[in-house]
Amino acid sequence: MSGPECCENPPKLSSGSSGGEAGHVQQLGGFSCYISGPPHSTLALLLVSDVFGYEAPKLRKLADKVAAAGFYVVVPDFLRGDPHVANDVRPLELWIKDHGPDQGFEDAKPVIEALKSKAKVVVELAKYAYIQAAVLLHPSFVAVDDMHAVKVPISILGAEIDKRSPPELVMQFEMALNAKPEVDAFVKIFPGVAHGWSVRYKDEDEVAVKSAEEAHQDMLGWFEKHLK
Hints:
GO terms for molecular function: hydrolase activity. It holds the Pfam family DLH. This is Endo-1,31,4-beta-D-glucanase-like isoform X2. Residues 1-21 are annotated as: Disordered. The protein is of the alpha/beta class. It has two domains: 10-119, Alpha/Beta hydrolase fold, catalytic domain (Rossmann fold, 3-Layer(aba) Sandwich), CATH 3.40.50; 121-227, Rossmann fold (3-Layer(aba) Sandwich). It has eight helices and seven strands. The strands form two sheets. It has a four-stranded mixed β-sheet with strand order 1-2-4-3. Strands 5-6-7 form a three-stranded parallel β-sheet, with helices on both faces. Strand 3, helix 1 (57-67) and strand 4 (72-76) form a beta-alpha-beta unit. Helix 3 crosses helix 4 (121-127). It starts with 23 loop residues before the first strand and ends with a helix. The model has no long low-confidence stretch (mean pLDDT 86).
């Protein structure tokens, strides 16, 4: 079952620009997408949101941060305008049935094809080498068996306080990946932070902010290592 930590510190969503965003919203592959970065870059990066969707301000801030390093970053609205909100009459367990990873996997294909023509979703893409590298930030609904099928370099950044993917499970991910020497992998658990911290941290929590920034740098470093 999904725990309450999946929905803690929900962002204030806004369909428009906050004024501090470097990117913009446009259609790509049949989806509304927040896009940031140089349009002629040959380095495309797909950011997949959590249950709160592509309008989350800190997620867009992260997209802008990665874009500043030269990546063309796309954050699709795979939730099709239906993010999980605090006052949603549907429990998360019911909402998630309409937004499972299998659907996200299929939805990602036309976006990736659109990116090519222009110049649990991430794990599924990594299994079939639709992408060149992957990073999971505090993963949900991921199993050890998924790791056995991964074919591209993958980094997993977990939280110490996480009922969905506790450190013990993340360590099992690492063991499974270590058994695949042909796949470069990096696993790290951040102490003192909870599930969702990298994109839903509280600005007044200095420890969480510092850990989020560290995770962002780890993510960026991974992509620079394997894509540049």
